[in-house]
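Predict fold of Adenylate cyclase CyaB; 202 aa.
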Amino acid sequence: MYEVELKFPLPPGDAADAVLAALADRGAKFGEPVTQSDIYFNHPVRDFAETDEALRVRVVTGSDGVPHGRMTYKGPKVDATTKTREEFEPKLAAGAKEVDVLTEALKRLGFREVFTVTKSRRTAHVAQADSPSGAFRYEVTRDLVEGLGEYLEIEASAEEKTLDATRDALLAFAAELGLKKSERRSYLGLLLDGAAGATDGG
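Predicted 3D structure, encoded as tokens:
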């Protein structure tokens, strides 16, 4: 499966209210916030920054306080417009111990821990049957990212044969919401770029 994704900084003030109202008009109801900590790793013999790949262990903690983990591998982006990537995401049993066991195994295999991205995320789903963007189901997330601010992500899953149609639908849906100038860098990339700029005095 492929993850087809667009990400946008949530615009300030009235512009943000207009986007959120447009989502509400389409049936989006954001759930309670959960905390996500994404621990990113680099490969022992190739640089994921150069190959445009990503490997992370995500720890999700909701209101019950129980951490749930999953490991995600993302392949290189396949187009120049969206963040479409092949994705593999096995889930772990609930509990901090399972996350610790996995991260320790990765380190012993030579993977190097690079950075942890922490955010508060609220998720909504939108199913559109009668729309210029067609009949698709979108996952919309509203993220408050430590060190970056607030972002909106729109995502859909696709098989290879439906990839073009899903990408076109996602772009059309974002346009319907008034969202422009998507950010193709990951949160990790944005944070690392910001850290590099601060080091360089930029």
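The CA atoms of residues 196 and 202 lie 8 Å apart.
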